[in-house]
Design goal:
With about 450 residues, the protein is of the alpha/beta class. The chain has three domains: about 5-130 and about 310-330, NAD(P)-binding Rossmann-like Domain (Rossmann fold, 3-Layer(aba) Sandwich), CATH 3.40.50.720; about 140-305, Dihydrodipicolinate Reductase, domain 2 (2-Layer Sandwich); about 350-440, Alpha-Beta Plaits, CATH 3.30.70.260. The chain is about 35% helix and about 25% strand. The chain has 14 helices and 17 strands. The chain has helices at about 15-25, 30-35, 65-70, 85-95, 105-125, 140-145, 160-170, 175-185, 195-200, 200-215, 235-240, 310-330, 365-375, 415-425; strands at about 5-10, 40-45, 65, 75-80, 100-105, 125-130, 150-160, 225, 245-255, 265-275, 290-295, 300-305, 350-360, 380-390, 400-410, 410-415, 430-440. Strands 7, 8, 9, 10, 11, 12, 13, 14, 15, 16 and 17 form an eleven-stranded mixed β-sheet that branches. Strands 3-2-1-4-5-6 form a six-stranded parallel β-sheet, with helices on both faces. Strand 4 (about 75-80), helix 4 and strand 5 (about 100-105) form a beta-alpha-beta unit. The mean pLDDT is about 95. Bound molecules: 1,4-dihydronicotinamide adenine dinucleotide (NAI), ligand LTNE7NMQ and sodium ion. 1,4-dihydronicotinamide adenine dinucleotide (NAI) binds near residues 13, 48, 67 and 189. The site of ligand LTNE7NMQ has 11 residues, from helix 7. Catalyzes the conversion of L-aspartate-beta-semialdehyde (L-Asa) to L-homoserine (L-Hse), the third step in the biosynthesis of threonine and methionine from aspartate. It holds the Pfam family Homoserine_dh. It catalyses: L-homoserine + NAD(+) = L-aspartate 4-semialdehyde + NADH + H(+); L-homoserine + NADP(+) = L-aspartate 4-semialdehyde + NADPH + H(+).
Length: about 450
């Protein structure tokens, strides 16, 4: 019989993910122990409210409201509380006490990652965070380890399960945004404050982590361009479908050349985009996530799976717990973060994208030529135009007839495309601009 040493796990948070981590640790403890080479013991679960009903039936004596006390004597601290404080302070205490830390807290890492990874390096501890991006999908380890010998050039990902669920329900079931969000929240996909999901903040934090790992540089959260899906309407989703697209919230991380200097730089942005129906990302339904990685030698890779949900995310957390336990058994400092480059992170204006603009114009001779002139003058070139006559303010009201134009552009600098839209807005030929969305993955 093998004599294992015992490793104590302190679990901070017993909510959607934490309760499933606790259940699986208790149910599969023997198996996880033999995989780790150490006996893994759940020492306790810190929560705010001892009497709150949990998703999993867990022994009451494991629960405590004293997170600081629980950390003392723990070998591995699993932080699943979310938010910045007290999560940051507790992780600092855990690392300083020599414990390894496992977290799913992308919000915290996107803001305080550099100082926490530095601290972990200084004290010879390890900070694991596979659950922080893409839920159950292995994406942190592949970027950090498997692709460490390659050069990643671009990441295009659906990294927020809640917004993908909501957009999918709007597309497939005809739901309104609000009703679909209520279901996503009920299913445990949304953050404690779902504005983090709908506003694109959660995806922006994940984009900062992905870009930092992929390009070996620090990508501050505030340098990630962010737009959420709060203004996406059923009308836009329906129009997208008619035109052969689906609306997705994308995180796009790219290594680019600075358009002004030609120097190497990085761009990270999160926004809703039109994705062609034939693109594999269009087939990512429900709360699933998918991350496309393009690398110089490997070519195109795709990582796909459950991006949110308690038990699914618990899988990633437990993988990190086993890694941490193995490190305790083997000794040594663990894997260092590879942030050594110091690349500038450029604003969205330096990104190259395509626009899809729906506008109402006066249905008169010369208008189309005027519109084309505004695009050309601002450095954007039109790829497709679809026109339908008799727009919303038609001749029936005694006004001039209007036409609706749906224009798709070729790829151009975001700065040129945004300037074109401003010029269209100011033009007497344009009655109104109905929608502007970027096209990606075409
Ligand atoms: N729900 C999901 O699908 C996913 C969540 N995550 C991340 O995992 C973390 C946890 O998420 P959920 O389980 O969904 O959250 P939750 O809101 O369901 O659970 C949070 C838990 O932390 C406890 N807690 C919060 N503040 C505390 C404090 N000050 N002291 C003691 N306990 C405290 C709460 O009592 C609760 O038990 C978050 O960082 C989230 O972003 C990551 C991937 C997927
Ligand atoms: N709220 C997040 C949970 C996982 O990170 C999401 O919806 O993706
Ligand atoms: Na993951």
């Amino acid at each position: 019989m093998i004599e294992y040493r015992t490793l104590k796990i302190a679990l901070l948070g017993g909510g959607t993910v934490g309760s499933q981590v606790a259940r699986l640790l208790l149910e599969n403890g023997a198996e996880l122990s033999s995989r780790s080479g150490a006996r893994i013991e759940l020492a306790g679960i810190a929560v705010r409210d001892l009497d709150k009903p949990r998703d999993a039936a867990l022994p009451r004596e494991l629960f405590t409201t004293d997170a600081e006390q629980l950390i003392l004597g723990a070998d591995i601290v699993v932080e699943l509380m979310g938010g910045i404080e007290p999560a940051r302070e507790l992780i600092v205490k855990a690392l300083n006490s020599g414990a390894d830390v496992v977290t799913g807290n992308k919000q915290l890492l996107a803001v305080h990652g550099p100082e926490l990874f530095d601290l972990a390096g200084q004290v010879g501890a390890q900070l694991y965070y596979e659950a922080a991006v893409g839920g159950a999908i292995p994406i942190i380890r592949p970027l950090r380890d498997s692709l460490a010998g390659d050069s990643v050039t671009r990441i295009l990902g659906i990294v927020n399960g809640t917004t993908n669920f909501v957009l999918d329900r709007m597309d497939v079931d005809g739901d309104e945004l609000g009703e679909a969000l209520a279901v996503a929240t009920e299913l445990g996909y949304a953050e404690a404050d779902p504005t983090a999901d709908i506003g694109g903040y959660d995806a922006a934090a994940k984009a900062a982590l992905l870009a930092g790992l992929a390009f070996h540089t620090n990508v501050p959260l505030e340098s990630v361009y962010r737009e959420g899906i709060e203004d996406i309407t059923k009308e836009q989703v329906d129009l997208a479908r008619e035109m052969g697209y689906v609306v997705k919230l994308l995180a796009i991380c790219e290594r680019i050349a600075d358009p002004a200097t030609g120097e190497a730089a990085v761009s990270a942005r999160v926004h809703p985009a039109l994705v062609p129906r034939r693109h594999p990302l269009a087939a990512v339904h429900g709360a699933h996530n998918a991350v496309f990685v393009q690398a110089e030698a490997a070519g195109d890779l795709m990582f796909y799976g459950a991006g949110a949900g308690g038990v699914q995310t618990a899988s990633a957390v437990l993988g990190d717990v086993v890694s941490a336990a193995r490190r305790h058994v083997a000794g040594g400092p663990g894997v260092a973060e590879s942030t050594h480059a110091d690349l500038p992170v450029l604003p969205v204006s330096a990104a190259v994208t395509r626009y899809h603009v729906t506008l109402h114009v006066a249905d008169q001779p010369g208008v189309l030529a005027e519109i084309a002139r505004l695009f050309a003058e601002n450095g954007a070139s039109i790829e497709t135009v679809v026109q339908s006559v008799a727009g919303p303010a038609g001749a029936a009201d005694g006004q001039s007839p209007t036409a609706t134009l749906v224009i798709g552009t070729h790829a151009a600098l975001e700065a040129s495309l945004a300037a074109t839209v401003e010029a269209l807005r100011a033009s007497a030929a344009v009655t109104s601009i109905a929608h502007v969305l970027r096209i990606e993955g075409a």
